[in-house]
Amino acid sequence: MGSGTADGMRWEPDAHEFPSVLEPFAWGGSTYVILRVPAGLYSEALALGTRRAAGTLNDQRVNVGLTRVSSLPDPYVYVGPGLRRRIEADPGDVVDCVLAPADPDLVELPADVESALAAAGATDRWELLRPAVRRQRLAAIESAKRPITRERRVAALVSEVLAG
């Protein structure tokens, strides 16, 4: 294991490099698309006090949640439509994965969002939001199919942050 710690000091756990097949997973009346991840990655993350992993999927930077359910033998990552577009993969495709446990408070900002928040003087307010809330708000932006939709969503996010 690398030098990651659960107390927020320094996060440098070892990366796990592995191929994984995007596969459908029926659960609770819905079908999700997932990537199975090594049990060691999941165990290492839990030992560090997190259920998040960061790295790359098909060379695209990601910060994803690690999940385990009793109906599957392996832990996995949910790969929604927006992320599938980013990594250019569909169910049945093999994805090149490089993931390591991630600080649960780390929420990387896309450059356009970071610039918009800074221009509006909203960065400090953004940082006051809980990490889970920041990730949720960014998911809507990341799932935009068209650039104009993304721009509108970034503007709406900035307005929401400023409004408190």
Task: Explain what the structure shows.
The chain is built from six helices and seven strands. A hairpin with a 2-residue loop joins strand 2 and strand 3. It starts with 15 loop residues before the first strand and ends with a helix. By secondary structure, the protein is α+β, with helices and mostly antiparallel strands. It folds into two domains: 16-101, Beta Barrel (Elongation Factor Tu (Ef-tu), domain 3); 111-163, no CATH class. 37% of the residues lie in helices and 25% in strands. Helix 5 (131-142) packs antiparallel against helix 6. The longest helix has 17 residues, at 147-163. The protein has a four-stranded antiparallel β-sheet with strand order 1-7-4-5.
Strand elements, count: 7
Order of secondary-structure elements = EEEHEEEHEHHHH
Task: Quote the CATH topology of the largest domain.
Answer: Elongation Factor Tu (Ef-tu), domain 3
Taking all Cα atoms into account, the compactness measure Rg is 17 Å
SSE-based structural type: alpha+beta
Supply the number of helical segments: 6
The percent range for helix content is: 25-40%
Mean pLDDT: 90
Describe the largest sheet.
4 strands, antiparallel
The CATH architecture of the largest domain comes to Beta Barrel
**CATH domain class of the largest domain:** Mainly Beta
Strand content: 25-35%
Work out the count of structural domains: 2
How would you sum up the global shape? globular
Whole-Å distance between the termini? 40 Å
For the largest beta sheet, what order do the strands appear in spatially?
1-7-4-5
Low-confidence stretches: 1-9
